[in-house]
Amino acid sequence: MTENGSSPTSRRALLLAAGSAGVAALTAACSGPAGSRGAAGQPSGAPADAPSSGARTPACVLAMEAGAGPYYLDLDRVRSDITEGRKGVPFRLDLTVVRASAGCRPVTDAAVDIWHADASGAYSTGGATFLRGTQVTDGAGRGTFRTIVPGWYAGLAPHIHFKVRPGHRTETTSQFFFPEDLLLRVYARPPYADRRAPEHPNARDSRYRASGAAMTLPVVPDGDGYRAAYTVGIA
What we know:
By secondary structure, the chain is mainly β. It has a single domain (11-38, 59-234), classed as Sandwich (Protocatechuate 3,4-Dioxygenase, subunit A), CATH 2.60.130. It contains three helices and eleven strands, in the order αβββββββββααββ. β8 and β9 (170-177) form a beta hairpin. The longest helix has 10 residues, at 206-215.
């Protein structure tokens, strides 16, 4: 993984070196050994690098895709820390990419982009790059982002967009949500408390009602912030 502070690496060059996967991609929630995900596809709080307690092959549960929205930018910025000094409650996101059609085998050298709003609900645009970045998965299909809990905007449930590119011809795009009770606790803290938070930041969004059960992150406390792990499967 290339951490923040090193020179940005061209994602296109990395993908061309890795080659094209040549298959259509779908998002999936994949269970790991011993309770990583239940039969209904609900994620657990276990980190992506937690040791396995068994050798059985996990079962993958397909989830819903979502559009990239109007704020996606193809920046070629490979880095783990995407905060760029943006204030907010720290949040670590551990992602694992696996191939659902091959027994949840880890996908190596997949480019994973994430992007989201800051505490005030604003996205970086123009020449700004805060709260955007890419990781290229390692031999275990893993990548980690260090960011903040996103703010709310435009009547939508707070979310983190992500795009997985296993090759330069295929991609999967969706978004993660947060538990509503956690959001209300976070939004009572500065700098989020500078605005009046909605009483129900998730339930008012039809997209959350459609896919929130599958795409809500299993958030757990982590120091003065939070962390979550999620496994994304592609076909």
